[in-house]
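During the second year of the project, the team shifted from modelling isolated chains to modelling whole assemblies. The rationale, set out in the original proposal, was that interfaces cannot be judged from single-chain predictions alone. As a representative example for this report, we include one of the complexes processed in the last quarter. Its constituent sequences, exactly as entered into the pipeline, are reproduced here:
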Amino acid sequence: MSDRFEPVIIGFTCNWCSYRAADLAGTSRIKYPPNVRLIRLMCTGRLDPTFVLKAFSEGADGVLIAGCHPGECHYLEQNYKALRRYQLMTRTLAQFGIVPERLRLTWASAAEGARFAEEIATMVEEVRQVGPLNWPTRPVPRVEQASGGAA
Amino acid sequence: MSKPKFAMYWASACGGCEIAVLNIDEKILDLDANFEVAFWPAAMDVKYKEVEAMDDESILVTLFNGSIRTDENEHMAHLLRRKSKLLVAFGSCANEGCIPGLANLSPREGIFECAYTSPSTENPDHLRPRSAWQAPEGTLTLTPLQSVVRTLDQVVEVDYHVPGCPPESHQIAAVLDVLIAVVKGEAELPPKGAVLGAGDSTVCDECTRKRDIKRISKLSRIQELPMLNTEDCLLEQGLMCSGPATRSGCNSRCPNVGAPCIGCYGAAPGVLDQGARLMTAIASVVDEKEPAAIDKVLDGLPDPAGTFYRFSLAHSLLRANRAALAEKP
Amino acid sequence: MQRITIDPLTRLEGHGKIEIFLDDAGDVANAYLQVPELRGFERFCVGRPVEEMPVLTNRICGVCPEAHHMAAAKAADAVYGVTPPPAAKKLRELLYSAFFFADHTTHFFILGGPDFIMGPDTPVAERNILGVIRKVGLEIGGKVIQARKYGHTTVEIIGGRKVHPCTAVPGGMTKAISEDERKEIEKMGRWAVEFGQFALQVFHDMVLGNPEYLALILGDAYTHKTYYMGLVDANNKVNFYDGKVRIVGPDGTLHGMYAPNDYTDWIAERVEPWSYLKFPYLKKVGWKGFADGAESGVYMATPLSRLNVSDGMATRWPRPNMRSSSPPWASRPIAAWPSTGRA
Amino acid sequence: MEKVEGYVGNYTVTIKKKPRYVDEDVCTGCGICVEKCPVLVVDDKFEAGIGYRKAIYWPFAQAVPNLPVLDPDTCTYYIGGKGGCKACEKFCPTVPNSILFDQKEQRVTLNVGNIILATGWDLFDARRIPQYGYGRLANVFTNLELERMCNAAGPTGGKVVLRDGQTAPRTVAIVHCVGSRDRNYNRHCSAICCMQSLKTAHLVKERTGAEVYNFYIDIRTPGKEYDEFYQRVLDDGVHFVRGKVAEVTDIPFDPAEASRNEAGTLYVQVEDTLAGLQRRIPVDMVVLSAGLEPRRDSAAVGKTFGIACSTSGWFIEKHAKMDPIATMTEGVFVAGCAGGPKDIPASVSQGAAAAARVLNYIRQGELALEPVRASVLEEQCSGCRICNGLCPFNAISFVEERKVTEINAALCQGCGTCVAACPAGAIQGSGFSNEQVMAQIEGLLRNFAREPEVV
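Output from the structure prediction step:
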């Protein structure tokens, strides 16, 4: 297998549209890179920035958020909240040294299997250009031996 | 039976926690009556050597404030963990890294760059403090700074947490009462890992300002809001306030005097990342739908990371800027 | 070369350790006061909004956060080119003075002071606040606690919190004080004046009254003939909040006077490889090592130096029957004062 | 309907009942008052403006309750406040008198379990297309006016006549898709105007024997026996011109055309797309098949009932295909054209379906909810009210006394937006909880071999 960098991307999809777009892409045998690992949420409104930070800190190289087109949200307008959070997250993550290419928000209705697959392919390429993130793991307290060990 | 030992130590800290403990006023006598202060650099002349000579777990309770910035801080954390039965992360520095934790937003090298080449510094031969330096009379050592600030529980097991910058004196007094009751056998020890001296909601719970449904159309800075009134919620008047995502317990000190809450009591119970809570709370109530209009409102926050993680950067999920983390110790 | 290490320094704010090298005869060859602490405020304040400086920089020191709070607020005023309204200026001045009273009570009875109240020969374990209370008794100990309580309560009323105040913002203060609050502050203030005289009395009886201490203080160990720097108001009286910075030489002659924002013309900081802390000195005199005297740029910016550079306090003692002789510092700069404390 | 509070099974509805000025309990519906009332008023509601009614009148024959109502705007008793006439009161045989001139507006509160919104539709105002001349050219009618004309009980007794009320038209033009399928007005197809136009063509042909021209874009006959009816109308000899009418004018193109036709003839300018040529057809009468539009107040009504309107204004159903009569708010249903244009059979079946759903709830007495819900940890909620404005389903409400927020499980749809927004982490989702999602993230990234960095 080629040794080129294969980014790991966590995708958050919405149960009513982008998750179904992924299904449709699958059923219509559309090929797209396997780098994205999808997590289903009821709505992109459910996306908590903590999830994005968790993904990056656990080793993801990119995070994709895919929701319904504005105005078509199954819950009427909750994708607007996802949009606002995305815009604030991009600004904050920049100060952590995480470039905008690593966090992507896209809209894909249940019928847009092809478009969703294309969106994933583009993102995989972009993150491949940007390179691995390799966020260091979280320090774990070292448990001292009970006896008076060396300082 | 001699009194149980009490210790208070400060790692990378400012001494505010010590003053807050002294500010429990008369209750300091209860401390003296029920405990033998074994080690307290701010107020007692006990030296490190003497602490190392103590038996393990001979100190009943150690209030450890200050974050882990240098090797010495870490060494003392391990030492006091060994010597103390109960190690309490006391104050925001030990719990979340506090304001000095903001140094994690840029590589450690920047600290030396700024400090030792500032406009008021005459440093023609570019001297830098070094971990070991050969003086004519002998080698002098300085504990080196680590690449990023860490919190106490990222270095050693912590038994209890007392948040706040500094913890409010009435809360410290309450924690002291619990300790005294435990010592006298009148009360059980709280569950390990418990947060003491704080409420279980957020600052808004104790804030006396009127609150309404939040819809933010503009975020301004305090100097742009001379007409802030004392009745309504500051956030609703367009001033960024960290109250909604900051743990209660301080009786909403700052908002009650017209200043915004800056988040010093850390995250609400069970919350992993205080900054993320503030980010999502503010973003969700921005009253715009078009990306450009949303951006215009968000421009009211010139420093998002600094605002959302003012006190909890070192304990957040990401902990630091990528470049800072990448710097080898 | 024999070596004595004092690690850590205690009963002060901040970290420090002293390395003393003794020559073969056992005399001190050299001594180094090393500060092993550096948090990088100069670096991480870059990029933060200017109006947050008062609440970020006050975390430089938890014992004197009010000082950094005010300095940052005044700097922010200057950035916006605004002068706070008179009421705000008075509130800031009152907060600063209350802090000065509370902080000095802390220093006098808890930090540096115990060395003198308990005496240099008392065992180490006793030389602290708990020892002081045991020695002077609960009655006086209670007064000390009361003094600190009043000082910090005033800071809390004006500054919002006892430690790390939050009400100074660019252009003024976020909160005024009510008439009741003013009355309460006045009540505490009057009590504090009493306490001040009591503390002076304690100092006279326990320290100046004890020939052994007097010899120690006036001895050369504590005598530093250096430059003195302090803030003075328009008629050259001590002021804590505002005014010009006045510098006098070891012999009392005027070295210079400048507005605080011109400090880089007068002060420079020296870097030493064995301490994170830098060493400020008078630029115009120059760095001549850690030495006293008129040629060395080393200067003192302490309560003593405030008195040496000024014509006394701006306010007079309320009770005329204070000992008639004018305070000793009236004629020439006092060189001898225990300058422990500020590392 | 002024205010709706509560939730499914527990709605409190406040209704503003306008005064009828007739005592419902006493009036027998004899109609003498209507007979005696001297004031004649143009009825632009039921009679579509081509018929009259009295100041006191029946809204329409099958009105429920079947009682007259007095119109204060046109009754002389109220005009100028002089209290004149009172003929209806004089002749009313009931004791006590049914006419109550000073009856006041009432607030009625009802406790109901479910709500069915069958608020219907508005007719597209044909005046908005000036080139068709409705309201300017006398003999241009709307489909609703023709409906009343063809009705035997209507103002013309079923005879199709021109605006003068006597002369029967010799040639009639029927224009389809007026204000529908049109980017400038309504993009949607109003579903019923094709069939209605065919019916009008058939009736006009049958009653007047006139030459009838139907101008259409597509003939849409989706229902049972609909296309057969279309074939029959074709057999009647109705002319079908495929093209969108550009203009209806009474000005002849040139003197030659003027001489060929009488004054007052209307010329219909159209491009016949099948024949591929421009045509100007002289007719006596033009009937505009105006489309269906959402009620003007649908946005406000939607807000009152906590349901949403789509961008075009129709109420949004829970699911376009699988659940067309429920809405996102549990317990509120939509039936008929309020949800979108449809014909009578569809409206009737939706009405029945909505009633059946409601009966289901009433019989069961309890409600099966989707498992995914949000709930507030009361002791952790600080009452900061960040979440209060985030729920389009009004499931989030603020309890003023306890200064905390509450989520109504019946209304919550489980989208989780408030769970993700709560700054205090005080709102938990029963499904897709933080722990579950975080575990998935860790799981998905675990094989990404990285030991924890023990420093």
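Residues 224-309 of chain C form one domain. The radius of gyration of chain C is 21 Å.
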